[in-house]
Amino acid sequence: MMDGNDLASETTRRGIISQAWTRISQIYQGTLDKWTPHTKGRWFGCILLLIAFVIRVVTKQGWYIVTYALGIYHLNLFIAFLTPKIDPAMDFDADDDNGPALPTRATEEFRPFIRRLPEFKFWLSVTKSTIIGFICTFIDALNIPVFWPILVMYFITLFCITMKRQIKHMIKYRYLPFTHSKPKYKTVESTVTVN
Protein backbone atom coordinates (compact mmCIF):
# COMPACT_ATOMS: atom_id res chain seq x y z
CA MET A 1 0.00 0.00 0.00
CA MET A 2 1.24 3.47 -0.87
CA ASP A 3 1.68 6.02 1.83
CA GLY A 4 1.49 9.80 1.41
CA ASN A 5 5.19 10.25 0.54
CA ASP A 6 5.13 7.69 -2.30
CA LEU A 7 1.99 9.27 -3.78
CA ALA A 8 3.49 12.77 -3.61
CA SER A 9 6.75 11.64 -5.25
CA GLU A 10 4.84 9.93 -8.07
CA THR A 11 2.76 13.06 -8.66
CA THR A 12 5.95 15.15 -8.71
CA ARG A 13 7.57 12.71 -11.15
CA ARG A 14 4.58 12.94 -13.50
CA GLY A 15 4.70 16.72 -13.25
CA ILE A 16 8.39 16.76 -14.18
CA ILE A 17 7.82 14.47 -17.19
CA SER A 18 4.86 16.60 -18.29
CA GLN A 19 6.90 19.79 -17.99
CA ALA A 20 9.82 18.27 -19.90
CA TRP A 21 7.50 17.10 -22.69
CA THR A 22 5.86 20.54 -22.87
CA ARG A 23 9.28 22.23 -23.07
CA ILE A 24 10.46 19.87 -25.83
CA SER A 25 7.25 20.57 -27.76
CA GLN A 26 7.80 24.33 -27.41
CA ILE A 27 11.39 24.08 -28.66
CA TYR A 28 10.25 21.95 -31.62
CA GLN A 29 7.47 24.39 -32.51
CA GLY A 30 9.83 27.37 -32.14
CA THR A 31 12.31 25.74 -34.52
CA LEU A 32 9.56 25.10 -37.08
CA ASP A 33 8.39 28.71 -36.74
CA LYS A 34 11.93 29.94 -37.46
CA TRP A 35 12.13 27.75 -40.59
CA THR A 36 8.76 28.81 -41.99
CA PRO A 37 9.88 31.84 -44.07
CA HIS A 38 12.91 30.04 -45.57
CA THR A 39 11.12 28.08 -48.30
CA LYS A 40 14.06 27.55 -50.66
CA GLY A 41 16.40 26.52 -47.85
CA ARG A 42 13.87 24.07 -46.43
CA TRP A 43 13.32 22.39 -49.78
CA PHE A 44 17.06 22.35 -50.52
CA GLY A 45 17.64 20.50 -47.24
CA CYS A 46 14.78 18.12 -48.01
CA ILE A 47 16.21 17.34 -51.45
CA LEU A 48 19.64 16.69 -49.89
CA LEU A 49 17.97 14.31 -47.44
CA LEU A 50 16.21 12.51 -50.32
CA ILE A 51 19.50 12.26 -52.23
CA ALA A 52 21.19 10.76 -49.14
CA PHE A 53 18.33 8.26 -48.87
CA VAL A 54 18.63 7.26 -52.54
CA ILE A 55 22.42 6.93 -52.25
CA ARG A 56 21.99 4.66 -49.22
CA VAL A 57 19.46 2.46 -51.03
CA VAL A 58 21.57 2.25 -54.20
CA THR A 59 24.86 1.53 -52.42
CA LYS A 60 23.37 -1.09 -50.09
CA GLN A 61 21.14 -2.51 -52.85
CA GLY A 62 18.19 -3.19 -50.64
CA TRP A 63 15.15 -1.75 -48.89
CA TYR A 64 13.23 -1.46 -52.15
CA ILE A 65 9.89 -1.98 -50.38
CA VAL A 66 10.70 0.93 -48.04
CA THR A 67 11.63 3.07 -51.05
CA TYR A 68 8.44 2.09 -52.87
CA ALA A 69 6.27 2.89 -49.83
CA LEU A 70 8.05 6.23 -49.44
CA GLY A 71 7.47 7.03 -53.12
CA ILE A 72 3.75 6.21 -52.86
CA TYR A 73 3.43 8.36 -49.74
CA HIS A 74 5.22 11.28 -51.43
CA LEU A 75 2.94 10.91 -54.46
CA ASN A 76 -0.09 11.02 -52.18
CA LEU A 77 1.24 14.19 -50.51
CA PHE A 78 1.93 15.80 -53.90
CA ILE A 79 -1.62 15.12 -55.11
CA ALA A 80 -3.00 16.66 -51.90
CA PHE A 81 -0.71 19.66 -52.51
CA LEU A 82 -2.11 20.13 -56.03
CA THR A 83 -5.76 19.69 -55.05
CA PRO A 84 -7.92 22.60 -53.86
CA LYS A 85 -9.16 22.51 -50.28
CA ILE A 86 -12.75 22.84 -51.45
CA ASP A 87 -12.98 20.39 -54.31
CA PRO A 88 -15.17 21.78 -57.12
CA ALA A 89 -16.22 18.22 -57.99
CA MET A 90 -18.03 18.02 -54.64
CA ASP A 91 -19.84 21.37 -55.16
CA PHE A 92 -21.80 20.25 -58.19
CA ASP A 93 -24.80 22.35 -59.26
CA ALA A 94 -27.66 20.57 -61.01
CA ASP A 95 -28.20 23.62 -63.26
CA ASP A 96 -24.68 23.64 -64.68
CA ASP A 97 -23.64 20.78 -66.96
CA ASN A 98 -19.92 21.30 -66.45
CA GLY A 99 -20.13 21.83 -62.71
CA PRO A 100 -18.70 24.79 -60.85
CA ALA A 101 -15.43 26.34 -61.90
CA LEU A 102 -12.93 28.74 -60.48
CA PRO A 103 -13.10 32.24 -61.97
CA THR A 104 -11.15 32.70 -65.18
CA ARG A 105 -12.07 36.27 -66.16
CA ALA A 106 -11.61 39.60 -64.44
CA THR A 107 -15.38 40.14 -64.28
CA GLU A 108 -15.94 36.98 -62.24
CA GLU A 109 -15.62 36.82 -58.48
CA PHE A 110 -12.06 36.22 -57.30
CA ARG A 111 -11.61 33.08 -55.24
CA PRO A 112 -8.02 32.34 -54.24
CA PHE A 113 -6.59 28.88 -54.65
CA ILE A 114 -6.37 27.29 -51.23
CA ARG A 115 -4.55 23.98 -51.14
CA ARG A 116 -5.79 20.88 -49.37
CA LEU A 117 -2.23 20.43 -48.08
CA PRO A 118 -0.33 23.73 -47.55
CA GLU A 119 3.27 24.00 -48.73
CA PHE A 120 4.77 23.99 -45.22
CA LYS A 121 2.86 20.87 -44.15
CA PHE A 122 3.83 19.26 -47.46
CA TRP A 123 7.50 19.97 -46.78
CA LEU A 124 7.25 18.84 -43.17
CA SER A 125 5.54 15.56 -44.10
CA VAL A 126 8.06 14.82 -46.88
CA THR A 127 10.96 15.55 -44.54
CA LYS A 128 9.60 13.47 -41.65
CA SER A 129 8.76 10.52 -43.91
CA THR A 130 12.19 10.64 -45.56
CA ILE A 131 13.89 10.61 -42.15
CA ILE A 132 11.72 7.66 -41.09
CA GLY A 133 12.53 5.88 -44.37
CA PHE A 134 16.24 6.58 -43.85
CA ILE A 135 16.04 5.09 -40.34
CA CYS A 136 14.22 2.06 -41.77
CA THR A 137 17.21 1.36 -44.03
CA PHE A 138 19.20 0.48 -40.90
CA ILE A 139 16.72 -2.26 -39.92
CA ASP A 140 17.57 -5.56 -41.63
CA ALA A 141 14.09 -6.98 -41.01
CA LEU A 142 12.69 -4.40 -43.48
CA ASN A 143 15.12 -5.44 -46.22
CA ILE A 144 12.66 -7.75 -47.97
CA PRO A 145 14.05 -9.24 -51.19
CA VAL A 146 11.97 -8.22 -54.21
CA PHE A 147 12.51 -7.84 -57.93
CA TRP A 148 12.83 -4.05 -57.92
CA PRO A 149 12.24 -3.35 -61.65
CA ILE A 150 8.61 -4.44 -61.20
CA LEU A 151 8.21 -1.94 -58.36
CA VAL A 152 9.73 0.81 -60.49
CA MET A 153 7.43 0.07 -63.43
CA TYR A 154 4.39 -0.11 -61.17
CA PHE A 155 5.30 3.21 -59.53
CA ILE A 156 5.81 4.91 -62.91
CA THR A 157 2.45 3.56 -64.12
CA LEU A 158 0.73 4.69 -60.93
CA PHE A 159 2.35 8.13 -61.18
CA CYS A 160 1.27 8.60 -64.81
CA ILE A 161 -2.32 7.50 -64.18
CA THR A 162 -2.65 9.65 -61.07
CA MET A 163 -1.16 12.75 -62.68
CA LYS A 164 -3.33 12.29 -65.79
CA ARG A 165 -6.42 12.21 -63.58
CA GLN A 166 -5.23 15.29 -61.65
CA ILE A 167 -4.49 17.27 -64.83
CA LYS A 168 -7.92 16.37 -66.24
CA HIS A 169 -9.47 17.60 -62.98
CA MET A 170 -7.50 20.87 -63.25
CA ILE A 171 -8.63 21.39 -66.85
CA LYS A 172 -12.27 20.51 -66.15
CA TYR A 173 -12.59 22.91 -63.21
CA ARG A 174 -10.21 25.52 -64.65
CA TYR A 175 -7.74 26.02 -61.84
CA LEU A 176 -4.00 26.34 -61.69
CA PRO A 177 -2.42 25.34 -58.37
CA PHE A 178 0.63 27.57 -58.80
CA THR A 179 0.85 31.33 -58.53
CA HIS A 180 3.99 33.10 -59.64
CA SER A 181 3.53 36.48 -58.02
CA LYS A 182 0.96 38.92 -56.74
CA PRO A 183 -1.25 40.40 -59.47
CA LYS A 184 -0.24 43.91 -60.48
CA TYR A 185 -3.00 46.28 -61.39
CA LYS A 186 -2.59 49.11 -63.86
CA THR A 187 -3.49 52.53 -62.64
CA VAL A 188 -5.22 55.07 -64.77
CA GLU A 189 -3.03 58.13 -64.90
CA SER A 190 -4.97 61.35 -65.11
CA THR A 191 -3.33 64.36 -66.60
CA VAL A 192 -3.75 67.52 -64.61
CA THR A 193 -3.23 70.85 -66.33
CA VAL A 194 -2.34 73.87 -64.29
CA ASN A 195 -3.30 77.33 -65.56
User: What's the end-to-end separation, in Å?
Assistant: 101 Å
How does the overall form come out from the CA principal axes?
A: extended
Over all CA atoms, what is the radius of gyration? 26 Å
The helix/strand class is mainly alpha
- Strand percentage, roughly? under 5%
List the uncertain runs.
none
Mean of all residue-level pLDDT scores: 83
Q: Which quaternary structure do these chains form?
A: single chain
Strands, count: 0
What characterizes the major β-sheet?
none
How many DSSP helices?
5
Order of helices and strands: HHHHH
Helical proportion, percent range: 55-70%
Transmembrane segments: 41-59, 65-83, 146-163
InterPro entries: Rer1 (IPR004932)
Subcellular location: Membrane
Main location: membrane
